[in-house]
Amino acid sequence: MDLYDVLVFGTMLATSVVLGIAKGGKKGEGASKFIHGGGKMSTIPVSLSMIASFLSSITILGQPAEVYMYGPQLWLFGVAFVMVIPIVGNFMVPMFREKKYTSAYQYFGERFSRKVQFITSVLFTFNTVIYLSLVLYAPAMAVNQATGVNTILLVTIMYAVCIGYTSLGGIKAVV
């Protein structure tokens, strides 16, 4: 890895941190602004951010091999999204906004019970920790192969940057 590669990688990480600081909330703005972005975020950036969140390193590194080995049936996920998005946009989002829910788990707690809310929250958290470990480890292995930099160090740096800009800037920094 030469100097230009290090500069590009460092600039990318520094930009993420600066965005988190720039979008960071001011003291006293409250959790709602931090979590919901103050309700003032436009549709296009939020939509593009959600689409990008589905395109993890696992998708980018693994999908070509999946299609090569098993065929192109993955396009059916796109069909499912086209059918589900209008349902979610026309029914779920208005209900969540009207009731001022911050998550589906809040709905589970009101609709079913606090036990259901707790169990689904714990299962989601467990699933997300495992998934994000893989999402960060896959590109760290690729960078390790190209540069020789320790994989654990790369994962630690990526985690620190992601946690930092999310903690500082809230949902606006993520979008």
Give the N-to-C terminal Cα separation.
30 Å
Report the radius of gyration as a whole number of Å. 19 Å
Detail the poorly predicted runs. none
Structural class: mainly alpha
- Shape annotation: globular
Mean pLDDT across every amino acid position:
80
Percent in strands: under 5%
**Main beta-sheet annotation:** none
Total tally of structural domains:
1
Order of helices and strands: HHHHHHHH
The tally of beta strands, per DSSP, is: 0
Helix count from the secondary structure assignment = 8
Name the helicity range: over 70%
GO molecular function, one term: symporter activity
Organism: Lygus hesperus
Family: Belongs to the sodium:solute symporter (SSF) (TC 2.A.21) family.
Membrane topology: Multi-pass membrane protein
